[in-house]
Amino acid sequence: MTETVRLTIDGLGVEAPDGSTVLDAARKLGIRVPTLCHRKGTKAFQSCFICLVQVEGRPTLSAACSTRALEGMVVHSETEEVHRERRTGLELLLSEHHGDCEGPCAIACPAGLDIPEMIEHITAGDAAEAIRAARERILFNAVLGRICPAFCERVCRRAQLDESVSIAALQRFAGDAGIGAESAGAAEKPAVTGKKIAIVGAGPAGLTAAFYLLRRGHACVLFDANKLPGGMWRYGVGEFRLPRTVLDGEIDVVRRLGGEFRMETRLEGASSLDALRRDYDAVLLATGAPVPVALDCEGAEFAEAAMCLLGRVGAGERSCVGSSVVVIGSGDMALDAARTAVRLGAANVTLLSPKERKAIHPVGERVETAETEGVEVRAGVRVTGIEAALGAGFRLTAEEGGKSVRIEASAVYGAADRAADVGLFAGMGLAVTKKGIAADAHAFTTNIGGVFAAGECVLGPDYGVRAVAAGRQAATAIDQFLSGLKPAGETRPINVHMGVLNEEELAIVRSTADPSRRAPDESIAPEARRQSFDEVERGLSMEAATAESRRCVRCSCLAKDYCELRRHATEYGANPGRFKGSHRRYGQEVSHRRIVYEPNKCILCGRCIRAAAEGNERVGLSFLGRGFATTVGVPFERELSEGLAVAGHACVTVCPTGALAFKRGTGPEPERGTSG
Amino acid sequence: MTDALKDIPAHVEVTNGGAAGEFDPGILDRIIARTGRDAGAVIPLLQAIQAEFRYLPRRALEYVVEKTEITASRIAGVSTFYDQFRHRPLGQHLIRVCAGTACHVKGASVVYDAVLRRLSIPAGEDTDAHGLFTVEKVACLGCCTLAPVVQIDHVTYGHLTVGTVPRMIQDFLDYERHHRAGKHLTPPASEEGLAEIRIGLGSCCLSRGSGRVWEAMEETLAELGAGTQARLKRVGCVGMCHQTPLVEIVEPSGECALYARVRPEDARPILLRHFRPKGIAHRIETAVSGVVDRLFTEDHVEVLTRHVITPRDPQVHAFLGKQKRLSTEYCGHIDPTDLEEYMNFEGFDVLRRVVTEWTAERVIEEVRRSGLRGRGGAGYPTGLKWRQVREAPGQKKYVVMNGDEGDPGAFMDRMLLESYPYRVIEGMAIAAAAVGADEGVLYIRAEYPLAIERVSEALRRCEERGILGENIFNSGFSLRLRIMQGAGAFVCGEETALLASIEGRRGMPRLRPPYPAESGLWESPTLVNNVETFALVPWILRNGADDFAALGIGRSKGTKVFALVGKIARGGLIEVPMGVTIREIVEEIGGGIAGGRTFKAVQVGGPSGGCIPAELAHTAVDYEALTGVGAMMGSGGFVVLDDTDCMVDIARYFLTFTQNQSCGKCTFCRVGTRRMLDILERLCAGHGRKTDLDDLEALAQSVKKGSLCGLGKTAPNPVLTTLRYFRSEYEAHIEKRCPAGRCQALVHYVITDKCIGCTLCSQNCPTDAIPFRPYQQQEIIDEKCVRCGTCKEVCPADAVEVK
């Protein structure tokens, strides 16, 4: 008969066989104590020390994996001190753990698109899988692949070798492949929850929220003041950049999932908001920032809002704008208005930007594209006044290069800015900020219960990708709310990143990189563009997309979705940047047919060493060196293929990080959950 | 080619060391046959291979894997863990620069840099282009009173400066060229009625030239035909390191004379004085050294004056007066390996009584009553530990002596093993009898060759006399003791790591419980005690627990041995009763601070201990009192610091040591100490941030709480104590100032208008940072200056200032 001991953990009594550890007893109670070096059913190795607990009567914290459970022992595993030291331990491990969880591109993407995974599927020639993966984070890939400023490309690691991967073009490729395809990105018939959400505004944020709520089985009704859904994408972007068929194609996914559209309906005030709250389980305000801001000059009333021009054209009108058009402003709206004017037959189109040339648009090429089409771009011009000239035209006075200049125009369009209708919201009893509705940055809740707000109506005018990100995150928060939880929004896993590579690291990346150059942008001839609203940029062919996808250097970690270090670090709110300093050296040992070893990610838990020994490896693995410089490696500088001749699978399976991982496409997803 | 190597004698063959080319499996077969082929033999096996090849050729290791039961993983893991093992061929000569605490505070790092510069060894390399010299830093050579110290092969150079480095290398090459077959210093058999000429031959005495004094005495005795009147006698450490080489002449009448800092050429006059008509040797008393000998003992503080001293001299009296010799009983009187002599002084009487008359219970009770606590540092009650081992279930029990003394700045254990091997063996044998062990291991660091040699000899003689082995004193009690050489890992001073090392594994500790008393060596109950603890046992049992307990204070009984080093006038090895205050040690025994500087702090307990400021010098040497001020007893390093020592630098120094010696197993120690060191390095480099001090403190607390073993748990102590007592100095570093002028990045050397234009600085500057401008005020080009201090040292006009 085995004797048992009784102890208390976090106030709960538990009986455990004599000889058990505190960890065993905690697990019996279902209390989660994090571990990294320990494997269930094996002798404790005592290296990671993140299983710390407080045993009453002991002066310092104890490692649960190696503390014998004793009769009458009182243990606390959830105190502030225990959490703090577990977090510190994780932060120390993260500081030597060197690599990228997500690729820099995915981190830079406001919507967190898993770009490497999408690219991986394109390389494999599986466009359907690529769009399925992309739609985990973004519905509008065909749209954003065309118009997104692509922050991802600016941080792309490939750019350190030659030029960034053409990520936007690949996203567009995947998105286009998804248009019209049945079921792409929509989960198989989700279980209907019976909950119904009113979404006010069928623009980027509202549509996105609808998509992710519908996927979770909630019903959605979208209200919009306009005739057609799409918001600013339909009424504020030139068709030559974003064909309406593409936009409609992706909106159609929402419709097919059961999204109900109530167009040309306005949210009028507090009473209608109350009505929505009464009739629906939750309300999401996603009304965008559709109010044009007047120019800051005398005679501003003579300038029409560029947004109105784009709106009319977006709705299908093709009116004449006169022979010499002036557009005042910067950014996409100003550029698109100028290019639209060219297409509407204006002989002279001038863009007067108050900003310096390089500040007109974050993507400099977009200014050049406008110039190719005949737009005269004058940067650093401050318009001080507009007056109606004799006859049918206007005279502008402006300061340019310190001098006062006069400019004549038959039509003037102002693209100063847009804004959310803050007054309207305030009138409904919503708390507001200068930019829009005051909503929680993570939970998207407002001061009114059950009413959420996301997108430009909160942020003010912004890039579509940010509205899309907000829409998806708000959907998560609303789902939590509808499930009776406190809305908290998405938890973003922590990320370790390598930053700019040093020469040594770069050399390793270069050695495995595909040598081809970035795919050139293909566009229709400038002469042809002046006559038509046809899309200017041509996308990538299947072949070109596959070739471009191979240029990706695959920064993201193979283990990012199952890494135990990342999971615990996220749970304990560890800050990977708390400790900076020397870390493990980057390397890639690829001699093994199926396994890749990245010593830079190793946390010295020794699980693989023990697994190799248990697997009777002849050469096996060993700790090498001592102290901070210790590494795990194959004895006598032999290759990994020799060290792991038979027990490779077991070693990868036990690795708690991505130090040992199956090469892409060569191994099964290792079974996980061997530790706590 | 560098200047140093220009004069390489033609016959010195410059090879790349090692014999990997001509690989002879026969050698390995013989080694394997000698050491055994099981996993436990791996460390002795690697040591033997390295002794043969001077490094570990990969082919040899692979051969071992093939021929023994030792796995590749084990060999690779163990051979890369310990500092002793080299995987690259060694240069023909090995230069070991001591990086111990005493050496550090006396400028070891600039000496190290100077050696590398002199040999043109580029950063990241350790061997010069000709394969003549390999340079390495070692944790501590245990010759702290000679700091800074460099060992080239078996020749030790002390009190080095940047300026004397080239001469040291040249001297070594000269010495090599004229190297005579080394004479063995064997004492003649003892004879009655003769005067004794006692010469201390501990490691540090030897490195200060006592070996050559011995040779000179031997030759002179023969020449004078005085062999019938006197005999030479080798004795252990005399403790008064500041006076060595020390020769004591004891006339048959009992009258004695002590000669300090004797040089070989003094042998003749000294002997004439005693064994010839009087009056010839008067001049000795005023003899002043004019020549620089092979041993560079240039100490600007202590002029090389030799004189006759007697124990009644006030200086000597002060040094000895406060001391109380228990573990160092008969200091300077007995020949370390002379078993007869040890027995004449009641040696092994207690062991005989213990094994033939006493019950184990009586022994343990006596030790318990004495209040003896572990001298390794933590101060666990020895009697209690013995009882636990005694009562632990199990047939097989072991007793282990922890002689892995690795604290930089401490050499008590080395001295005890070199000078009193029998006393340590006796204490250990008594312990074995008390706890019921029949097998024991003396774990001694390989860096202490003389200790290993003497203990081996002592063990052999004991076995021959039946004091060890089967059926000791016909009592039925048997005990086999063997030596295990530590392979260079400070962490092996931690008992679980030490046991792992004996079992042939990487010296990585494990959590306790279970304690070794319950599950130790090969999972049997094991008693692990420190050298000094064992050395005290015979005295306690001979004189009684009450006499021992009468010494000391509070819960700290008896005496403690300290290595009194650093900025002290009279450094040495001292044994004091517990309860003595720090001030008494520094001012009375040590004679205050050397060179008339200001007493700032003492660092007690090495890397686990802390810095105690001068204001707290009334603190008593007592386990609890020292812990109370943030330090700890540790194993007995006692480094005195003056106003030129930077406390941030001291903290960084100790943390560099522990960080480097961390086994790397647990997160908090492996990474935590590294991150603490990052902050300290930043501070010393002048890149500190406002938040650094709070971050450092928070992290230090985490490392204390979350580390596996004592090394990690105590590693933050030097940082925390300096932060506690010298926070303003840390704050100054954030403002890019080093008040003590030690942190190289924060100080600048400038030449003032006192300059007389002699150009000595320019001539001696190792980096050409001072353009040669005769008869003008010299100027230092700051970007070229490496802050080695040579200019300041050579300047005759005191015109170099550190700002």
Please state roughly what percent of the residues of chain B sit in beta strands, choosing from under 5%, 5-15%, 15-25%, 25-35%, 35-45% or over 45%: 5-15%
Rounded radius of gyration of chain B (Å): 26 Å
Strand order of the largest sheet of chain B: 6-5-7-8-9
Number of strands of chain B: 23
* Helix content class of chain B: 25-40%
How is the biggest beta sheet of chain A arranged? 5 strands, mixed
Number of strands of chain A: 26
Distance between the termini of chain A: 29 Å
Q: Helix/strand-derived class of chain B?
A: alpha/beta
Which ranges of chain B are low-confidence, i.e. pLDDT below 50, for 5 or more consecutive residues? 1-20, 180-190, 277-307
Please tell me the total number of domains of chain A: 5
Number of helices of chain B: 32
- Under CATH, the topology of the largest domain in chain A can be stated as FAD/NAD(P)-binding domain
CATH architecture of the largest domain in chain A: 3-Layer(bba) Sandwich
Mean pLDDT of chain A: 92
The name of the CATH superfamily of the largest domain in chain A reads: FAD/NAD(P)-binding domain
**What percentage of amino acids of chain A are in beta strands?**
15-25%
